[in-house]
Design a protein that fits this description.
Order of helices and strands: EHHEEHHEHEHEE
Largest sheet: 7 strands, mixed
Bound molecules: coenzyme A
CATH topology: Aminopeptidase
Strand order of the largest sheet: 1-2-3-4-5-7-6
Shape: globular
CATH class: Alpha Beta
Number of strands: 7
Helix content: 40-55%
Structural class: alpha+beta
CATH superfamily: Gcn5-related N-acetyltransferase (GNAT)
Radius of gyration: 17 Å
Distance between the termini: 27 Å
Number of helices: 6
Oligomer: single chain
Length: 215
């Protein structure tokens, strides 16, 4: 890792396979990942197609070593968007490969989606923002390859994402992670995100950050 050459730039179509690879490596226990690398590739493509302004990669001498992707709206809207996108994929997959439906990961994924639709809404009061009129965004996934971790790249990606989000008109960002993900929790705290909710039932922690000119 040369370090000095690391640049953060918008995700391009050519980067999608490498981003999908890093995604699968860094989120191995996510139920989405267990649906296979093809699904993750399409999922990254979806981010690139629908929210290109909120998709960045970190490059070191031409090699991708990290990425961050986000979406507009809150958690519920994000899951709705993904569900809407993923539904035909799953349906087609089920018809072509009916045995997939019985895979635990498949069922877990749908349960996760439906649970999320119900319970991830953070009230405006909880994050101290006006009820209406503010444009929200969500930092969905940030990841750095292992050899480059704990050297400040995660924070650089987060900060670049905040700037890109602010530039696109987003005023309040939210994010969430597993309670046990100490690196992600520390990263968010370090970047000035406020912990707004802990959900012991789903084992998730929710963060929020209001964006302004001082980024
Ligand atoms: C979360 C992640 C992106 C952080 O990337 P990173 O490049 O290591 O982040 P940074 O180097 O900027 O470190 C941020 C802070 O987290 C701390 N940290 C990093 N790894 C840690 C770990 N395993 N445990 C505890 N703290 C850790 C760093 O020490 C730093 O805090 P400090 O400056 O006070 O020392 C990276 O660990 C990762 O890719 N994890 C897998 C994917 C993931 O879980 N993403 C987050 C959920 S979307």
């Amino acid at each position: 890792m040369s370090g000095a050459q690391i640049t953060i730039k918008p995700l391009t179509a050519q980067d999608i396979p490498q981003v999908a690879e890093i995604f699968c490596q860094q989120f191995p226990s996510l139920s989405w990942t267990s649906l296979g690398s093809n699904f993750i590739r399409k999922f990254v493509e979806w981010h690139f197609k629908f929210h290109p302004e909120l998709a960045l990669v970190a490059q070191d001498d031409g090699r991708l070593i990290g990425f961050v992707v986000g979406a507009t709206g809150g958690h519920r809207e994000y899951y709705r968007q993904v569900l809407h996108y993923a539904f035909p994929e799953f349906l087609a997959g089920s018809l072509l490969h009916p045995w997939r439906v019985f895979r635990p990961s498949f069922l877990t994924l749908w349960l996760e989606f439906f649970r999320s639709l119900r319970s991830t809404r953070i009230s405006p009061k909880e994050i101290g923002m006006a009820k209406t009129g503010e444009k929200k965004g969500i930092l969905c996934f940030v990841a750095v390859i292992e050899p480059a971790q704990a050297q400040g790249l995660g924070a650089r990606l987060n900060q670049a994402f905040e700037k890109a989000a602010f530039k696109s008109g987003i005023e309040v960002l939210s994010a969430y992670t597993d309670i046990s993900n100490l690196a992600a929790r520390r990263l968010n705290e370090k970047c000035g995100w406020k912990q707004v909710r802990v959900d012991p039932h789903r084992k998730m922690v929710y963060f929020s950050k209001r964006l302004d000119d001082n980024l």
